[in-house]
Specification:
The complex is a heterodimer of chains A (414) and B (357).
Chain A lengths: L4 H4 L9 H8 L4 H16 L19 E2 L17 E4 L6 E3 H14 L3 E4 L6 E4 L3 H13 L15 E2 L2 H4 L7 H11 L1 H5 L9 E4 L8 H4 L2 E7 L4 E2 L1 H9 L16 H6 L7 E4 L2 E4 L9 H5 L4 E2 L4 E7 L13 E7 L6 H17 L6 H8 L1 H8 L21 H8 L9
Parallel strand pairs in A: 6-7, 7-8
Antiparallel strand pairs in A: 1-2, 2-5, 4-5, 8-13, 9-12, 10-11, 13-14
Helix pairs in contact in A: 4-5
Chain B lengths: L18 H6 L3 E8 L2 E6 L4 E7 L4 E3 H15 L2 E4 L5 E5 L5 H11 L30 H10 L1 H4 L10 E4 L13 E6 L8 H7 L2 H6 L6 E3 L8 E3 L9 H5 L12 E6 L14 E8 L6 H17 L6 H8 L1 H7 L29
Parallel strand pairs in B: 7-8
Antiparallel strand pairs in B: 1-2, 2-3, 3-6, 5-6, 8-11, 9-10, 11-12
Helix pairs in contact in B: 4-9
The chains are: A alpha+beta (414), B alpha+beta (357).
Chain lengths: 414, 357
């Protein structure tokens, strides 16, 4: 066993220790022992000891495996190859122990036994195996009904919140939508053919528990169009202190409905009449604050679907972006044809015009929102902008003049 | 080869849902959080599901994962799930098993929490454990920060939930740019050019195109078939290294941690916000990164003391103003805080008289 005096200092303390855990596995897995040894070296030298990747994979796929090699293979032979396998997770990360044990059996046999539950995109991440183990592991995984996820310039494994499986706020079936879109784009997921990565995330309500607005090129966030459902007797119970705010998730004994809910409503669309809560639902911007505060009194409406937002990515390269609204409301019912079609239209336009390693959000910034909206057949609607432009530098296209000539006042896509 | 199975995608989630979820799918009416780490979801049918949320280090072994399975078999009929922030949730259908489960979690040292107004688990990346571009480790810093903030994981004491995330370089696999507190690994040295191998490893046009500030040009000595870097224009993003392995930008002394604060993804009250630079640099200090830990604690405590009820970190800072934030948190304001990257910079300059002394 390698000596790890620096890492040993991470064994103490109340939060679960990965060092303690890895040390349990190290005696039976030489690669894990070597990983601890190399990590100790990184702790000492404050530098990584992993080489730039390499192209490895399973037959017929161009993604899902990330090549990884140590730059100290002589010292740590167990890390000569230490590739990652991304296993596409089931919607909302529900598992049975039987299914998990089958996965772990495969990984103990063919890999290091180290994993992440889960990676940033959502996949189960198997960390550390040799090139020759990839194909046998893959075949065992598929035999048990699993497949590997996306990597590189491909559709990435979509992910979703726990949705209707365990949440009263979900405005559509995030789990089924995630599953169906994953199935629809299997080819693009396994065979990188896009300019860069493309991530889909499905959140059931504007609380956005999977951070779709920040972490997905295409973010589907649940929303309702009708009235917030109110149980007035429960509103009264919150006022009386019988029910605790946020279901008990805040250290606040009694909710002040006027100060904590009504006065903090960003659109000021609600007020109290005695002990009755009134909402002017047409002015509600569905921020979720009141619902979060009083989960037993308020629920989203029943005329539900999602808002589609596009374009978010981390700072590389043009600076971080959040997704912006492109479709304010889309009905989300099986088989989700409208969303599948929109996704295909967007990825086709992007694949045609995008530069190498240009995210779709960056491409739209480069070519302009109008070019994008026209190409994918979306109309200009005010929900897509925070404010209209402040400068007078707008374009007029031939199609605008043709629309005028035809007696229509303006040209729009739809 | 004829039997080779491909493109089947993940298993359908319905195979993994406990009966109480199958029967109440889409029928949940409300939830309560009777104590930190315990959620009870109540259905319109009157059925209840108890979820017990437990911290996991994300980087785990199959031994640890099998332990989780043993627990789920004993108390949850074999059903469990993971959250988007690497927590484990034990799904208890039989209420009588809750106390036993809680006792076993204590005995095994698995802390429950991460609900409501807590500091929940830190979304993070691979760091030195398994990445080729990191400026910092991930798992070690997470462990050190969570040990220090442990009291906030298992309680609801804060003004609102606090989401901490870590990305070990600017690539931000952890997409930490909308977190209440973001820990981001930063390089501070331009790439060193390995002229002797560059021609064998890299495509020069794509390497040049990869630089967002246009700092890379072909080497004037054409026989070298390499590139030069205008070091004044380099902001150490490492994108060229991603395209060209002959351009490493690591430096064992100059890499370190930046802290950004005030981001959120939820739409509650205020729209989603980006995290903004609070501390441009803290030196790497393994194994427990004491400066980083202390600075994060200081920001968290100042927030907890000064924010109004229900205010997220970003909402608090917007109310008091950034100039006040730097004063309250005792963080020096530097040239690095003023944005000078492309078009987004102008949006951050103050064009009003609405500031404080």
């Amino acid at each position: 066993m390698h000596k790890t005096p620096l890492l040993d200092q991470l064994e103490s303390g109340p939060f679960p220790s990965f060092v303690k855990d890895l040390k349990r596995l190290a005696p039976t897995k030489p690669a894990v022992n070597d990983l601890l040894g190399q990590l100790e070296r990184s702790y000492k030298e404050k530098i990584t000891h992993w080489k730039h990747g390499g192209i490895v994979g399973v037959l017929g796929y161009g993604s899902g495996i990330i090549g990884r090699y140590s730059d100290l293979p002589d010292e740590f032979p167990g890390l000569e190859h230490f590739h990652t396998m991304r296993i596409n997770h089931p919607s909302a990360w529900f598992y049975t122990t039987q299914a998990l044990r089958e996965l772990f059996d495969i990984w103990d046999e063919h890999g290091s036994g180290l994993l992440n539950m889960h990676g940033a995109t959502g996949d189960i991440i198997f960390l550390g195996t040799r090139t020759e183990e990839l194909e046998p592991a893959f075949q065992k995984l598929t035999a048990k009904g699993w497949d590997i996820g996306g990597s590189g310039s491909a559709m990435r494994s979509p992910s979703c919140c726990c949705g209707p499986a365990r949440c009263e706020w979900s405005c559509y079936d995030t789990l089924e939508a995630c599953y169906q879109l994953t199935q629809e784009f299997q080819f693009d997921l396994h065979r990188p053919s896009y300019p860069y990565k493309y991530k889909l995330k499905f959140s059931g309500c504007p609380n956005d528990c999977v951070a779709a607005v920040a972490r997905a090129d295409m973010s589907m966030i649940g929303v309702w169009k009708d009235d917030i459902r109110i149980d007035q007797s429960a509103v009264e119970a919150y006022m009386g202190g019988e029910l605790k705010p946020k279901g008990g998730g805040a250290n606040v004994d009694k909710l002040d409905v006027q100060a904590d809910v009504v006065d903090l409503c960003p659109t000021q669309c609600m007020w109290l009449e005695g002990k009755t809560l009134k909402i002017n639902n047409r002015e509600c911007n569905h921020c979720m604050h009141c619902i979060n505060m009083m989960p037993q009194a308020l629920r989203p409406g029943t005329d539900v679907g999602c808002t589609v937002l596009l374009g978010s990515h981390a700072p590389i390269l043009e600076g971080a972006q959040m997704s912006w609204v492109i479709v304010p409301f889309m009905r989300m019912e099986e088989p989700f044809d409208e969303l599948k079609e929109l996704t295909s239209n967007i990825t086709e336009w992007w694949a045609e015009h995008g530069k190498n390693r240009e995210r779709v959000g960056e491409l739209i910034m480069r070519l302009g929102m109008r070019a994008f909206l026209e190409a994918v057949g979306l109309p200009p609607v005010p929900q897509t902008v925070k404010t209209p432009r402040a400068n007078p530098f707008f374009f007029w296209h031939k199609s605008d003049f043709e629309a005028e000539d035809a007696g229509r006042k303006y040209h729009t896509t739809k | 080869m004829s039997e080779r199975i491909t493109d089947i995608g993940p298993p359908h989630y319905s195979k993994f849902l406990p009966p109480v979820i199958k029967e109440n799918y889409g029928k949940w009416k409300y939830h309560t959080i009777p104590e930190p780490g315990v959620l009870i979801h109540v259905s319109e049918t009157g059925d209840e599901l108890i979820s017990v949320r437990v911290a996991s280090p994300r980087l785990i072994t199959t031994l640890f994962a099998r332990d989780l399975c043993d627990i789920a078999d004993k108390y949850c009929d074999g059903y469990l799930r993971f959250t988007s922030r690497h927590n484990v949730e034990f799904l208890v259908s039989d209420k009588s098993k809750l106390e036993g489960l809680k006792a076993e979690l204590v005995q095994r040292g698995l802390p429950k929490g991460g609900t409501g107004h807590s500091v929940t688990n830190i979304v993070h990346t691979q760091g030195w454990v398994h990445c080729h571009t990191p400026a910092i480790d991930a798992s070690g810093i997470v462990k050190a920060v969570m040990d220090d903030l442990f009291e906030y994981f298992g309680s609801h004491e804060l003004p609102a939930q606090v989401r901490i995330s870590l990305a070990c370089c600017l690539n931000m696999c952890g997409a930490v740019h909308c977190s209440d507190i973001a820990i981001c690994g930063v390089h501070r040295t331009p790439p060193t050019i390995r002229h002797e191998v560059l021609r064998h490893l890299c495509e020069i046009p794509t390497t040049i195109a990869s630089c967002p500030t246009g700092a890379i040009r072909p080497h004037p000595d054409k026989t070298l078939k390499s590139v030069i870097v205008n070091e004044e224009r380099c902001m150490y993003c490492g994108n060229c290294y991603t395209m060209c392995p002959a351009l490493p930008c690591f430096d064992s002394e100059k890499g370190g941690v930046a802290l950004l604060v005030g981001g959120k993804v939820s739409n509650a009250k205020s729209p989603p916000m980006f995290s903004r630079l609070a501390v441009p640099y803290i030196p790497n200090d393994p194994p427990r990164w004491p400066d980083t830990v202390v600075t994060i604690r200081r920001i968290l405590i100042k927030y907890a003391e000064n924010a109004l009820k229900w205010e997220r970190v970003g909402e608090w800072v917007e109310r008091i103003g950034w100039e006040r934030f730097f004063e309250v948190c005792e963080i020096p304001f530097t040239f690095q805080h003023i944005d000078d990257y492309k078009f987004q910079a102008y949006d951050t300059y103050r064009t009003s008289m609405h500031f404080k002394f």
